[in-house]
Amino acid sequence: MFRLAPRITRLSFRNITLRDNIITTWSSLTDLKCDLSGWLWVVLDYCPSLTHLTIRRDDASPDFIQGYPYCLLSVVSFSVLNDMIDCYADYDASFADTIGILLDSFTFPHLDTLFLQGESSPNSFRPFRQISEFLERSNCPLTVLALSGHSLTDQELVSILARLPSLQELSLENPPNSDSAICPISTTFVQSLHASKRCDIYDSTKPLLPRLRSSVLRVEKITLILLPSWRVCRLGGYPISPPARRMTWSA
Fold first, then answer.
1. At 126, is the secondary structure helix, strand, or coil?
2. CB under 8 Å to 68, separation ≥6 — which residues?
3. In the chain, at which residue ranges do the beta strands (DSSP E only) sit?
4. How many Å separate Cα 195 from the centre of its chain?
5. What is the C-alpha to C-alpha distance for residues 17 and 124, in angstroms, rounded to an integer?
6. For residue range 155-188, what is the model confidence (pLDDT) as tens digits?
7. Which of 127, 130, 137, 64 has the alpha carbon at shortest distance from 107?
């Protein structure tokens, strides 16, 4: 397959099986979207120019698990999508830690954009340790972060964001059934984004995210948009004219 398309730049595959003796270096590939498979490591070894990596997350098979973090210097964008069945009754806790396995398996020193989509179940895996260790290990200049549906406390979220002084865009979404789940978006968390007011989880007058330009916070049926500068944004047809300390809610 590699020999038939040596100059391909984008590739998406599922359930692929490769033979090592037919693979050659795919030096032009920059954008890869794939599922979890032990073959992923084979493909990555032959893609030296990869910049955008997206993984569809399902049950992590044993051959996928790495014994040490796989370092990719060229990757600037990493996304993990949740492809598990959205059915609480059939929820299998063994699926939940695949996000942790993924984060433990990679190091991206030049990562600019990170998107992590959480579980379909409100009883989802709590990835605080894995996210924190991944960011510390990568030590990357992240400017865009999107976390969707993860069970994190507001204190854990602040601890994660405190590692990201270069962050400019933030998008957060609470887990499903927010009333019964551990949710990162709280009144106290919103207060932590404002340097003018201290709170229990961030006791400092310095901005938590000094370079933040835009923030979107989503809870069930409600979206909160915070814009640090004097800009005009539209949500559901209604204008929002902040500065950052002004909050507009739209159902």
1. coil
2. none
3. 10-13, 31-35, 52-57, 70-71, 77-82, 106-107, 113-117, 144-148, 169-173, 214-219, 222-226, 233-235, 238-240, 248-250
4. 25
5. 30
6. 999 999 999 999 999 999 888 765 555 788 888 8
7. 137
The whole-angstrom separation of Cα 201 and Cα 188 is: 7
Within 10 Å of residue 174's Cβ, how many Cβ atoms? Answer: 26
Cα distances (angstroms) measured from residue 44 to each of 40, 67, 83, 116, 181:
6, 16, 21, 20, 36
Phi and psi dihedrals of 82, rounded to 5? -95, 110
Euclidean distance between CA atoms 158 and 87, whole angstroms: 30
Other beta carbons less than 10 A from residue 142's beta carbon: 22
**pLDDT (average), residues 186-200:** 73
β-bridge mates for residue 225, sequence order: 216, 248
Spell out the SS3 assignment of 102-116: HHHHEECCCCCEEEE
Helix (H), strand (E), coil (C) string for 193-236: CCCCCCECCECCCCCCCCCCCEEEEEECCEEEEECCCCCCEEEC
The type of residue at 209 is: L
And the tokens for 34? 């794939």
Give the DSSP letter of residue 174: P
Question: What single-letter amino acid sits at 71?
Answer: C
pLDDT tens digits, 58-100: 654 545 666 678 899 999 999 998 765 443 434 445 445 778 8
**Highest mean pLDDT out of 44-48, 50-54, 66-70, 196-200:** 50-54
Beta strands at 144-148 and 113-117: parallel, antiparallel or unpaired: parallel
